[in-house]
Amino acid sequence: MTFGKRLFDLFFASLLVLLLWPFIIALLVWLLIRQGRPVFYVAERMKGMGEPFALWKLRTMTEVDEDSGVSGGDKVNRITPTGAWLRSKRLDELPQLWNILRGDLSFVGPRPPLRQYVEQFPEIYSEVLKSRPGVTGLATLVYHKHETMLLARCKTREETDLVYARSCVPRKARLDLIYQRRRNVCYDFDLVFQTIGFLFHRR
User: Fold this and answer.
1) Handedness of CA 170, 44, 3, 121 (dihedral sign)
2) Do 177 and 138 meet the contact criterion of CB atoms below 8 Å apart?
3) Residue partners of 182: CB distance under 8 A and separation at least 6
4) pLDDT given at position 69
5) Which end of the chain is more exposed for a tag (fewer CB within 10 A), N or C?
């Protein structure tokens, strides 16, 4: 990560925390009343080859004893009504401001992958993870809707993993590598504003 990109992340993450902390506290209290504990969902993700980190999100699903893989149609019944609302606004990702401040994430970059896919596709992720993972990115903007549609059709965890590995991993990687070749602070601003515009349009 370049010095300019890290400075960009630190400045805007700190600014958002200062501006949004009353809203964040109110949201946490509301979630505690609506869903109970735990309020947060913490999962392992990878920021480099052999470099795991704890990704923080607001909990949007009911808890189970064992959970793995990406979210597909096999997990849709676990999404709570409150969780569905959080996901529609991407508010479940607010705690990732902490990950940005820690240096685990950038605002813009490839979405951080699960260990199982990094180990399954080392030749792909050794290139993709030369960019610091991000909260949003080119692949998120271009491919997210299609990925959601593909995975929503899956009925089992095994089917979800198969579809994600065969269809989503290589296509997202191509987009992530396009971003990697073009990345600069101006392009990051552009992708952030496109993300904000997408959220308002979807709303």
Assistant:
1) negative
2) no
3) none
4) 81
5) C
Token digits for 117? 């896919």
Helices 3-35 and 185-202, interaxial angle, to 10°? 20
Contact 5, 185 (CB under 8 A): yes
| 8 A C-beta contact, residue 75 and residue 158 | no
Handedness of CA 131, 136, 137, 143 (dihedral sign): positive
Q: What angle do CA 50, 180, 57 make, to 5 degrees?
A: 55
β-partners of residue 55 are 43
pLDDT single digits (tens) 11-32: 999 999 999 999 999 999 999 9
Percent of all residues in the chain with a pLDDT value above 70, rounded to a whole number: 99
Residue bearing the bigger pLDDT, 24 or 201:
24
SS3 assignment, position 107: strand
E strand spans, 9-60 = 40-48, 51-58
Cα–Cα distances (Å) from 55 to 113, 122, 201, in that order, read 10, 21, 27
